[in-house]
């Protein structure tokens, strides 16, 4: 006698549809309950921001003052506060270059600040703008600058990084003459000008940084001989010549009293 193979039970399509719909409704209900529970949880006073820890560079800002000024501008609690906006608020404070903001459970924020490190003044004399070590221009109270003497840099908008790079390249060269570059400017026409702490003015001309450096090195390498020969400080120097430079010596007169004499020195 042969056995019969059991036949699978066929569930009607409408029953399968109803079962699937019921499961969907259950999942939706569970999700809704969870959402309500989460919404209720995040509104609990436990998660209201209770403290802001400020660390990092605080040479020009006080942590207590920072918290007092920034906290009223923040909205939300531990879960809902906008970290990007919080970072922007801190970075709007004078001297603050960068802020890193993190949450600390359950109701704290940790902020690490990086301040601008001033390298030079920027723009026309008397302006409050400065250049930091990254070549970025920022606004600050000049009375808060700790360095006694900073050089002056100037140039077209967006060229502060290039001007700072040129200054850092040229300044060590003039140490050989026991003098310092106190001002470096890139004009709107692309020409470089410098002023030394002796008051002497330098015309460095157009060109790449390598070309400007080469002209300065040529001048410095030969000026010792020139000063030994004439025994005079120079008032200005024009380094734009292809085979030498022209200098105006302080105190050297021509036929007319008060006139200055230009001397061209060849390589």
CATH top level class name of the largest domain: Alpha Beta
Largest sheet features: 10 strands, mixed
For the secondary structure, the number of strands is 13
| Percent of residues in β-strands | 25-35%
Helix percent reads 25-40%
Structural class: alpha/beta
Number of helices: 5
Q: What is the topology, as strand order, of the major beta sheet? A: 6-5-4-7-8-9-10-11-12-13
Separation of the first and last Cα atoms = 122 Å
Radius of gyration of CA atoms, rounded to a whole number: 35 Å
Q: What's the average pLDDT?
A: 83
CATH architecture of the largest domain: 3-Layer(aba) Sandwich
The name CATH uses for the topology of the largest domain is: Rossmann fold
Shape: elongated
CATH superfamily of the largest domain: Cell division protein FtsQ/DivIB
Please, could you describe this protein's structure?
- The chain has 267 residues and is of the alpha/beta class.
- It folds into three domains: 29 residues; 68 residues, membrane protein fhac (Ubiquitin-like (UB roll)); 149 residues, Rossmann fold, CATH 3.40.50.11690.
- 31% of the residues lie in helices and 26% in strands.
- It has five helices and 13 strands.
- Strands 6-5-4-7-8-9-10-11-12-13 form a ten-stranded mixed β-sheet, covered by helices on one side. The protein has a three-stranded mixed β-sheet with strand order 1-3-2, with helices on one face.
- A hairpin with a 4-residue loop joins strand 9 and strand 10.
- Helix 4 packs parallel to helix 5.
- It is elongated, with a radius of gyration of 35 Å.
- About 3% of the residues have low confidence.
């Amino acid at each position: 006698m042969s056995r019969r193979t059991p036949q699978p039970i066929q569930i009607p399509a409408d029953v399968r549809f109803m079962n699937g719909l019921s499961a969907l409704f259950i999942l939706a209900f569970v999700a809704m309950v969870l959402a309500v529970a989460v919404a209720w949880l995040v509104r609990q006073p436990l998660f209201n921001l209770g403290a802001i820890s400020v660390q990092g560079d605080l040479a020009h800002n006080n942590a207590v003052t920072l918290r007092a000024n920034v906290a009223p501008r923040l909205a939300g609690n531990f879960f809902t506060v906008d970290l990007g906006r919080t970072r922007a608020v801190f970075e709007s404070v004078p001297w603050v270059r960068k802020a890193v903001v993190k949450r600390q459970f359950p109701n704290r924020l940790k902020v690490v600040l990086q301040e601008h490190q001033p390298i030079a003044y920027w723009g026309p004399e008397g302006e409050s703008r400065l250049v930091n070590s990254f070549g970025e221009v920022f606004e600050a109270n000049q009375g808060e600058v700790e360095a006694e003497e900073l050089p002056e840099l100037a140039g077209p908008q967006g060229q502060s990084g290039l001007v700072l790079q040129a200054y850092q390249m040229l300044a060590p060269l003039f140490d050989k003459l026991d003098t310092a570059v106190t001002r470096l400017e890139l004009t709107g026409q692309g020409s470089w000008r410098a002023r030394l702490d002796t008051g002497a003015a330098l015309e460095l001309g157009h060109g790449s940084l390598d070309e400007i450096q080469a002209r300065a090195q040529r001048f410095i390498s030969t000026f010792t001989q020139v000063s030994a020969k004439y025994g005079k400080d120079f008032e200005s120097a024009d380094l734009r010549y292809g085979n030498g430079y022209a200098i105006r010596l302080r105190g050297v007169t021509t036929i007319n009293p008060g006139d200055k004499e230009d001397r061209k020195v060849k390589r």
